[in-house]
Design goal:
The protein is 26% helix and 17% strand. It has 472 residues and is of the alpha/beta class. Strands 1, 10, 13, 14, 15, 16, 17 and 18 form an 8-stranded mixed beta sheet that branches. An 8-stranded parallel beta sheet has the order 8-7-6-5-4-3-2-9. Bound molecules: pyridoxal-5'-phosphate (PLP). Pyridoxal-5'-phosphate (PLP) binds next to helix 13.
């Protein structure tokens, strides 16, 4: 008798399990997957022979030829796969090197150095002396992962954190525990009040309207969190006006119910030490904050830290400096370590003849014969289309990528999942799976080249990337 079909109509039975499925599995914040394996060395520039001898890789899905504990360069293909490139290089060995790396992945990786974040924290602490640091970990710690980053900062001694929304506050609270203050910069709104009370988040009160929203709930609660008062001193963004300050400070009942434990303001032009607005804001902050009988006071963001003692008060609120971004116009003074690199694998290389075009809309036309590499990261990973080159927005100042230790320019339009670079001038030919590095120490340059700021490039990086953290 014929066996009945077990599969539903339209299905074709069990699909074979993909061999290399590690990239699809969720990883924890140490970059480990569900079996506790981490990715150290895999697909890295160095051959990962140690990892492949590891007991975790015995048998199972990892038996295949691709996973032999062997240097990729020793694992020669029977015949050169890419002899077109080989012919451009004089020696045969160059051709044979044109192989792929073992176990390489097409998924980009965001490499985050937690040790560098700690070093940056320590450098800021040394600079501000007795003042405390309240770390800005809003927007998922500028895109780097609020949990891992907050824990690192907590480990470095940080006990005050700033986020933008109550939901972000919940994530940070769960990561670091109860022994720290978490302020929510955007201030309270009715829908978020439960989060404030459940996770003991301190709202930053930016207006009289927000004060009222908060009080409606706080007056009924037994243990309402303290608040911060944010005074606007000239930026005209969030914060209490001079009138609002008068209103709150003259109404002792209102003031008492708000129970502020921090008075803060924010600098508009701190990145430029010569801007007279800094001193104006400082004077206004001193005058308005004096109407409240409370310290600590806080004015400086990362750039403000470099404006000198007068700006530090009892708490500074750095963000970008912690994450390796240059905050001021004088890099040399900052003593900041790069923290993040977006690593994109080489997916393909090809030769392009003079006159041919590259990429969408054929925006780039080769003037001479050239070699290009297709990298596996695009605008979905935070490489802005504006970084396309060298026409359009970045005309004349192409954005660069580091490949085999050399800077190579982006050519053609950045695609959703890939970016093309000109490798004609590279000393060696990359292997498939070799990592190209976006950002790193070039973060600020790359941002300026396309008319944006390092903050924006940083925060947009890596939604689809695997994140790997280098321990503090
Ligand atoms: C984002 C933010 C900061 C941190 O700014 P950086 O320039 O990243 O140091 C500090 N204070 C306020 C009010 C902010 O919004």
């Amino acid at each position: 008798m014929k066996k009945p079909f077990k599969t539903a109509p339209g299905q074709y039975g069990k699909q074979p399990r993909p061999r290399d499925d590690h990239a699809a599995k969720p990883r924890d914040d140490k970059g480990r997957d569900d079996k506790g394996r981490d990715d150290k060395g895999r697909g890295d520039r160095k051959p990962a022979s140690r990892d492949f001898k590891n007991k975790d890789f015995k048998g199972g899905d990892f038996k295949g030829k691709d996973f032999k504990a062997k240097d990729s360069r020793g694992d020669k293909p029977k015949r050169p796969q890419f002899d077109r490139h080989g012919s451009a290089k004089p020696t045969a060995s160059k051709t044979e090197r044109f192989t792929h790396k073992q176990g390489f992945t097409t998924r980009p990786t965001l490499r985050i150095n937690l040790g560098a974040i700690k070093a940056n924290y320590d450098a800021i602490q040394a600079r501000v002396g007795n003042a405390k640091i309240g770390a800005s970990v809003k927007a998922d710690a500028y895109g780097l992962g609020a949990e891992a980053v907050s824990r690192t900062l907590y480990g470095a001694g940080c006990r005050t954190f700033f986020v933008a929304t109550a939901g972000e506050g919940k994530i940070v609270r769960e990561a670091i525990g109860d022994n720290a203050s978490i302020y929510v910069l955007n201030g309270p709104a009715p829908q978020d009040l439960t989060l404030y009370f459940t996770y003991t988040l301190k709202p930053v009160i930016n207006s009289v309207a927000q004060a009222r929203i908060w009080l409606a709930e706080a007056d009924r609660a037994k243990h309402a969190p303290f608040t911060a008062l944010h005074i606007d001193t000239g930026m005209n963004r969030l914060g209490l006006s001079a009138d609002d300050v008068g209103q709150l400070s003259s109404n002792s009942v209102l003031y008492k119910s708000l129970a502020p434990d921090l008075i803060m303001s924010h600098l508009a032009c701190a990145s430029d030490a010569n801007n007279p607005m800094n001193a104006e804001q400082l004077a206004r902050f001193r005058r308005l904050s004096a109407q409240f009988p409370v310290t600590p006071l806080s004015l400086a963001n990362s750039a403000g830290v470099h404006l000198g003692r007068d700006y530090h008060f009892q708490l500074v609120r750095p963000g970008i400096s912690l994450y390796g971004g240059q905050a001021t116009k004088k890099v040399a003074q900052e003593d900041i370590h790069p923290v993040v690199s977006l690593m994109a694998p080489v997916l393909q290389t090809r030769e392009v003849k003079a006159g041919e075009t590259i990429g969408y809309n054929a925006t780039y036309r080769a003037e001479a014969d050239m070699k290009i590499a297709i990298l596996g990261a695009g605008y979905a990973d935070g490489i802005p289309v504006a970084a396309s080159g060298p026409s359009g927005a970045s005309a004349g100042k192409p954005s660069f990528v580091t490949l085999l230790k050399q800077r190579v320019p982006i050519v053609g339009r950045v695609s959703m999942d890939s970016t093309i670079v000109d490798i004609t001038r590279l000393a060696a030919v990359p292997n498939l799976g070799d990592w190209a590095e976006f950002r790193g120490e070039n973060l600020t340059h790359d941002a300026n080249a396309i008319g944006t700021i390092n903050y924006e490039l940083l925060v947009r990086l890596g939604q689809r990337c695997r994140r790997t953290y280098q321990k503090a």
